[in-house]
Amino acid sequence: MLSLVVLVIIWYALWGKNSPDASRTVNTPKKKSGVGGVIALIIVLSILGSSSWAIALVLLSLGLPVMLIWKLISLAKKTEAREQSPEYRSMPEPFKLTETVSKRRKYVTKFNKEYELSLTDEQIERIVDASYFSYSWEREIYDMTKDYNHPGEWYRSDTMWLRAYLRAFPMMNITSDFEMQRRVVEDAFRQIFTELPPGEFMTIDSAIEETNKRFFTLFDETTYMIAFRYMQTKGMKLEFPNALHHTMESEADRLAREYDERTGQAPGSGSDAGGSRSSWSDAELERLREAYERLEQKMGKDGSDGSGTGESGDPDDGRRRGF
User: Fold this and answer.
1) 27-45 b/e with 16+ CB inside 10 Å = b?
2) What pLDDT is attached to residue 179?
3) Rounded to the nearest 5 degrees, what angle is found at the Cα of 11, between the Cα atoms of 9 and 13?
4) How many CA atoms lie within 13 A of 253 on its CB side?
5) How far apart are CA 90 and CA 86, in angstroms?
6) CA 165 to chain CA mean position, Å
7) Fewer CB under 10 Å: which end of the chain, C or N?
8) H-helix or E-strand containing 265?
9) pLDDT at position 254, please?
């Protein structure tokens, strides 16, 4: 009986652990196929009894050399196919990932937990299975085996669009075909930016907050901007949130703009020039006026007239000349 158990172990070590179907059966004994295989093995071992040693020796002497030769031929063919594959040639650098199914599954499961992705067990299995015929998915698993000094380093890849999707979408669709996966991600990003264009918000933070609230996503600034830039490359016309245009202003331009906006109000009256109720207090207007005057004086010292105002001494006139 022990000899046949040894045969099963040898078979699994040489072939079974590298087969997604066989490995899944061994690692999920609750499945009918796994339970049936164990029961069948027990029955066979019980019937054979002491003769199992002789059978084991015959099988080993005949089968082991054949298995080793087949293994070497298979490995050589796979290496040749890898090197000639356009998908593999497009990779930025060569890589070598273990052939063992259980190890690939372990890498993805560990990375999924450490980097707070939302992959389910079924999705992990799908990625592992796909890695045996898609070099792009194989590369994704390979990059999950690396040590990163900062989580942001993981995004530095030609597939940052996929990695942003894996991080930001708790409810995701994983497909084994990599080009189909690209389309899935693109459609998800397009839906978000179509329904909630970033330009409608005042800041990136407000856009991200509303997006996460509406779509139950987990975007942060990094993943949001990856999606933003990716969809721009796909021809989608997207604008930054409105407030980002103002951050490009100089301090002088900003104060001049705010001064123009606020000086149309009647200080002390609590209402603007048209009689409508004003939201600006006297203290706010006074602080703005003082800041504006200090800036004009500073600009005047650097300018030719040294005053920071126009000939009339009017701050508005000075602004029009100096800014």
Assistant:
1) eeeeeeeeeeeeeeeeeee
2) 93
3) 70
4) 6
5) 6
6) 5
7) C
8) strand 265-266
9) 62
